[in-house]
Amino acid sequence: MFQKLFGFGQRSRRVVIDGLYERIVAASRQPVFYAHWGVPDTPLGRFEMIALHMILFLRRVRNEDGAAVREVAQEVTDVFFADVEHAIRELGIGDMGVPKRIKKLARMFYGRAAAYGEAIDADDAEALAAAVARNIRPDEEDWAGAQPLARYALDAAASLENQKAERLIAADISFPDAERER
C-alpha cells in the first residue's frame, strides 16, 4: 500500500521510516530537557523523552484514515521498540532478561500514552505536568521541569495537528524548539 501511494520501493520505505524515527529522537534530545529542566540524562531519562515524542506522533496520526498511515505508525513503533531492545542489550542485559525488560518498558510506554493522551486531549497542563513528573522524576517532589515540559508537549501536540499526515509519514515532521519554553 505504501509503495502504491507514494511510489516508494522497499529501500525508500526504510529510509522514510528511519528518517521519521530519527527526527523523533532528535526532538527528544533537545539539550534544554536535560540541562535546564532536569530530565535525567540517563538511559531511562532518554527513554522517557523518546517515549513522549513517540506518543505525540502516534497521537497525531491515530485518527487518520488510510492503511499507509497505520503502516507507518506501526513501523515507527517497531523501530522504537527495536531501539529500546538494542539499548537494553548495550547496558549488558543478557538474552534471558531482555524479554522481561521489554515487556515492562512496553507497559510503561502504553501507560504513559494513556495518561499523557488524556491530559493532552483535555488541554490540561496541570494533569500533564503531574503525569510527566510522576513518570520522569518520581524521586523529586515539586520537580520544576514538569511545568515547562508539559507546556512544551501541549505546544508540540498543537503543532503536529497543523502538519499534514502525508508530510508526517514522509518523514517531514517538526517539533517545536523547547528552548522557547525556558
Automatic annotation (TrEMBL):
Transmembrane segments: none annotated. Signal peptide: none annotated. Residues 36-174 form the Ubiquinol-cytochrome c chaperone domain. It comes from the Bacteria. InterPro entries: Ubiq_cyt_c_chap (IPR021150), Ubiqinol_cyt_c_chaperone_CPB3 (IPR007129), Ubq_cyt-c_CBP3-rel (IPR014569). Pfam families: Ubiq_cyt_C_chap (PF03981). PANTHER family: UBIQUINOL-CYTOCHROME C REDUCTASE COMPLEX ASSEMBLY FACTOR 1 FAMILY MEMBER, UBIQUINOL-CYTOCHROME-C REDUCTASE COMPLEX ASSEMBLY FACTOR 1. Belongs to the UPF0174 family. Belongs to the CBP3 family. This is Ubiquinol-cytochrome C chaperone family protein.
